[in-house]
């Protein structure tokens, strides 16, 4: 890829930060989700359609007139994903999408991500989320790939997980009272 065409590559990838407060910067949800389209100099009627479509796709249309700084962590993540979707990316990279979410918001996020058609690259220590969403898993330790296999094979390899400072997903651990 040469430098003059690099932007074409980056326009196909969306990135969702672990901390949504580092990603969201507009005071109103509508303006946050509209930002990319407005930068592309789209007609405001087109912007409105794109904003509504993106918010609908993450089940957050009801937030359209809210202040971003007043949203819960889960709602902020929904808005961050909606903002990324306005770019029509082929691939979305998500950094710890379940971080700081309560169980109900975490499940909502998993279901939301299951419904997206884009390829997803998920960086996470939440192995139950990985079990729900990923067919393939790569384990990285000290910056090096130490395993690359089907998720079911990775998540049941206790020695590999222990060596990687991870543990079996909660659903696979034996409950001891």
Helix content: 40-55%
Nearest-angstrom radius of gyration? 18 Å
Task: Please identify the top-level CATH class of the largest domain.
Answer: Alpha Beta
Please count the helical segments: 8
Number of strands: 5
Helix-strand sequence: HEHHHEHEHEEHH
**Principal-axes shape call:** globular
The number of distinct structural domains comes to: 2
Description:
The protein is of the alpha/beta class and 177 residues long. It folds into two domains: 3-124, P-loop containing nucleotide triphosphate hydrolases (Rossmann fold), CATH 3.40.50; 126-177, no CATH class. It is built from eight helices and five strands; from the N terminus they run αβαααβαβαββαα. The chain has helices at 6-10, 29-39, 44-57, 73-85, 103-115, 127-133, 151-155, 158-163, and strands at residues 13-16, 91-95, 119-123, 136-141, 144-150. Strands 1-2-3 form a three-stranded parallel sheet, with helices on one face. Strands 4-5 form a two-stranded antiparallel ribbon. The longest helix is centred in the N-terminal third of the chain and has 14 residues, at 44-57. The protein is globular, with a radius of gyration of 18 Å. It starts with 5 loop residues before the first helix and ends in a 14-residue tail after the last helix. The mean pLDDT is 95.
